[in-house]
Automatic annotation (TrEMBL):
Residue ranges with Polar residues bias: 379-394, 723-736
Cofactors, names only: Ca(2+)
PANTHER family given in the database record: ALPHA-AMYLASE 1 (PTHR10357:SF215), ALPHA-AMYLASE FAMILY MEMBER (PTHR10357)
Source superkingdom: Bacteria
Keywords: Carbohydrate metabolism, Glycosidase, Hydrolase, Metal-binding, Polysaccharide degradation, Signal
Endpoints of the signal sequence: 1-30
Name of protein: Alpha amylase, catalytic domain protein
Residue ranges occupied by any Fibronectin type-III domain in the UniProt entry: 256-347
Region of interest: Disordered: 331-358, 375-397, 717-736
Short name of any one Pfam family annotated for the protein: Alpha-amylase
Record-linked SUPFAM superfamilies: (Trans)glycosidases, Fibronectin type III
Length: 763
């Protein structure tokens, strides 16, 4: 049995407290009238008040209410108390706080529109208080005391990379509200720079984003920029506080660069390659002056931007001497380097322009070049694209299209000196996608991408320059797919788009007469990656895309409404079945790996269609005619072997033979990418997806219809399996005896696999 403890009532346990309270009360009642009056007067004198001034110009409200709660007290009834006019653009309200030393406050127009400091409410003190565009200060804005200036932030923004023709700054003082989009206009400061001085009140910093007023933004990769008071520069996503005025006139640079060192000169035939170590300079070297003496032409001075000069067309068996000087932007010139000497040999026979070298490709070590990322020979064709900021390229001042043909030409001697006699370059056709520097998103297969060319350094110039040095050019080509925007001249899809409050940032305003080439900046959008020709709000004639323009029910990452037919897709019906396949790859060893899309950026051609075949054959005939020495074929495994053997490989051979003869055709090197995923002869038991399979001609007759033939060939060869594939004596050695190799069943395609494509084989 538990004992129960009785509790004493609380009032019986506090006799002393009760006594004191009672005594105090009696004392107060017994006090003299004068004493009590004095106490009441003192209490009234010490009551706190707050006069709140609110700035209305940016709100344009017809009336303003103050909804508040003194510290420790209760909120007023919504909408609060109406504020009265104070002076131009200001209303006010004086609040009796009693003993409270502050209040929490929000403002509204009496009709449901609120300013609650972004959900945090305003914490206000006593006395005169101003609230202006989210910034709190202590003053009477209507008193005739002269203007009171807040903290200043002077912001310089560089548009040298973006090429914008105007700039706005959209900002939020710390603890305040954002300006109305697009923000406030900046003024031209000097070439490539815009400037704005901002009054941010008592705030010590601000958040900012920049835009060109036409929907193109730089918001620091969605993180916004934090900018302090004082002078700040923002250039290519780099914020420099307490910066020097970038437009200020600098003191003259009088310091010359150091002299170049380790100058070397080496001769091949009647060409001499001169190289040297880079000079240093307090501002940077802009060029080098190479002085040549010797021969009958006397002294020749050549300016170069790199640390190598390929001096060609010299006299035979002649000694030449070279010295090099460095020059900076101010024209300061270094002392001359030490001399380097070389003697030319006999003149080599020069091949005609546009003619392949036509020699045995088995003797050529091949050097791979991703052209747009290799070497920047001409900065004027550098372009960043739509992902310039998001990709991180802007932060490193490294646009995706930076290298070019001029850069390759400048480095041919370097490549040759490494021991290579052939250069495999990435695709040269005009590309179109968000990130297309690599060349595999072909848009106009008949046009060389202008972002790779320069004056005096066209694609033809590169081919000719390589041939002049006895080097070959192998061009990477794509027959399997186009860009997601189709292939110009064959089919380009029109997507649904609308320039409303959600999507005007993405869809560029249409510009009649403007033609996308990847290089030229469209004036309205300020973009070289303009997309105004790709979308339509109205359903285009002949549209086959299902549920055109109807909301999908989904939202974008930004929370925007998504629509049907807003993005190219194989399953939407957007692409015509005759020209493009209509599915995604599901089985990488199945037939669908040859007849479905690899990726949303790679619209998969129906390569069994005659129109598609003719489009591709005609395009690549152009580059054969320019004198390339061979093709590296991208994604070759995703096209049926029977299509290669019937259409594309014979077309290549026929064109080379027609233009340059049978011997040139025999040595025109074609090597295809057949990406094996295992370290074995046969790729996971699928002969149709194995490297050596593509080196063979067909051993069976199939349907005259290429599409049917592709299925028949796949089923037949997979049915034969890996144990019933043909063999041949195609090596020089037969046992221990040499013999003539048998290439009678060779398809004409050589093979590379995944280890050469992008990494080691995987098992």
């Amino acid at each position: 049995m538990r004992s129960v403890r009785r509790r004493t009532p609380p009032w019986l346990r506090r006799p002393f407290v009760a006594f004191v309270a009672a005594t105090g009360l009696l004392g107060a009642l017994a006090g003299t009238p004068g004493t009590g009056a004095d106490r009441m007067a003192t209490a009234a004198d010490t009551a706190n008040t707050a006069t709140v001034f609110y700035y209305t110009k940016t709100k344009n409200w017809s009336s303003t209410y103050l909804h508040y709660a003194p510290d420790g007290g209760s909120w007023t009834t919504v909408p609060g108390t109406r504020m009265e006019a104070a002076c131009t653009d200001w209303v006010k309200k004086t609040v009796d706080l009693g003993s409270a030393t502050g209040l929490a406050a929000t403002f509204n127009n009496g009709n449901g529109t609120w300013d609650n400091n972004g959900g945090a409410n305003y914490a206000l003190g006593t006395g005169d208080i101003t609230v202006k565009d989210g910034v709190i200060a202590h003053s009477d804005p209507c008193a005739d005391t002269g203007p009171v200036e807040g903290n200043k932030a002077t912001v310089y923004y560089s548009t040298a990379t973006t090429g914008w023709t105007t700039a706005n700054i959209h900002y939020q003082p710390a603890g305040g509200s954002w300006t109305t989009v697009p923000g406030v206009g900046m003024e031209t400061a000097c070439t490539g720079w815009w400037k704005k001085t901002l009054d941010i009140g008592t705030a010590g910093s601000l958040k900012a984003a920049f835009n060109n007023g036409n929907g193109v933004w730089d918001n620091n990769n969605s993180a916004d920029y934090t900018i302090p008071t004082g002078t700040t520069t923002v250039k290519d996503r780099t914020v420099t506080k307490d910066a020097k005025d970038p437009c200020a006139v600098e003191a003259p640079d009088t310091e010359a660069p150091t002299a170049p060192t380790k100058v070397t000169a080496s001769a091949t035939d009647t060409s001499i390659v001169v190289g040297w170590e880079a000079s240093t300079d307090n501002k940077g070297v802009t060029k080098y002056q190479v002085t040549r003496t010797g021969g009958t032409k006397g002294t020749v001075v050549t300016d170069v931007g790199s640390t190598v000069l390929s001096d060609t067309g010299l006299e035979e068996k002649t000694a030449y001497t070279y010295t090099v000087k460095a020059v900076d932007a101010a024209g300061n010139t270094s002392p001359a380097s030490a001399e380097a000497k070389a003697t030319t040999g006999e003149k080599a026979p020069a091949p005609a322009t546009g003619t392949p070298l036509g020699t045995d490709p088995r003797k050529d070590p091949i050097y791979f070049v991703l052209t747009a990322r290799f070497h920047d020979g001409d900065t004027s064709n550098n372009r960043g694209g739509s992902q310039h900021t998001k990709s991180g390229n802007a932060a490193d001042n490294d646009p995706m299209f930076r290298g070019d043909f001029k850069g390759v030409v400048d480095k041919l001697d370097y490549i040759k000196a490494l021991g290579f006699s052939a250069v495999w370059i990435t695709p040269v056709v005009l590309n179109r996608s968000d990130y297309d520097y690599h060349g595999y998103h072909g848009y106009d297969f008949y046009k060389v991408d202008p972002r790779l060319e320069s004056a005096g350094a066209s694609y033809q110039d590169l081919i000719d320059a390589a041939h002049a040095k006895g080097m070959k050019i192998y061009q990477d080509v794509v027959y399997n797919h186009s860009s997601r925007w189709g292939a110009k001249g064959l089919f380009t899809p029109t997507v649904y788009g609308v320039r409303d409050s959600q999507w005007s940032w993405y869809y560029d305003e249409k510009s009649e007469g403007f033609e996308y080439d990847g290089l030229t900046v469209e004036p309205k959008s300020g973009k070289s990656y303009y997309n105004g020709d790709l979308w339509s709000t109205a359903e285009p004639s002949g549209n086959t895309c299902v549920n055109w323009g109807k909301p999908t029910g989904g939202k974008s990452a930004e929370g925007y409404t998504l629509y049907n037919c807003q993005w190219p897709s194989p399953t939407s019906g957007m692409f015509p079945k005759a020209y493009y396949h209509q599915c995604w790859i599901g089985n990488w060893e199945g037939e669908d790996a040859r007849s479905c899309w690899l990726h949303e950026d790679l619209a998969d051609f129906n390569t069994e269609n005659t129109t598609v075949q003719n489009y591709l054959i005609g395009a690549y005939n152009k580059y054969i005619d320019m004198g390339v020495d061979g093709f590296r074929v991208d994604t070759a495994v995703h096209i049926p072997r029977v299509t290669w053997n019937r259409r594309f490989l014979p077309a290549i051979q026929e064109r080379v033979t027609q233009k340059f003869g049978a011997e040139a055709a025999r040595n025109f090197f074609v090597f295809g990418e057949v990406a094996a995923f295992v370290n074995d002869k046969w790729n996971r038991g699928s002969v149709n997806h194995s490297a050596q399979f593509y080196t063979w001609k067909e051993r069976k007759e199939y349907s005259a219809d290429d599409e049917k033939a592709a299925i028949e060939q796949f089923d037949y060869e997979n049915g034969q399996g890996t144990g019933n594939q043909p063999t041949s004596t195609n090596a020089f050695l037969n046992g221990n005896s040499y013999h003539t190799p048998d290439h009678s069943r060779f398809s004409g395609m050589n093979i590379i696999d995944m280890s050469v494509h992008d990494g080691p084989n995987r098992s």
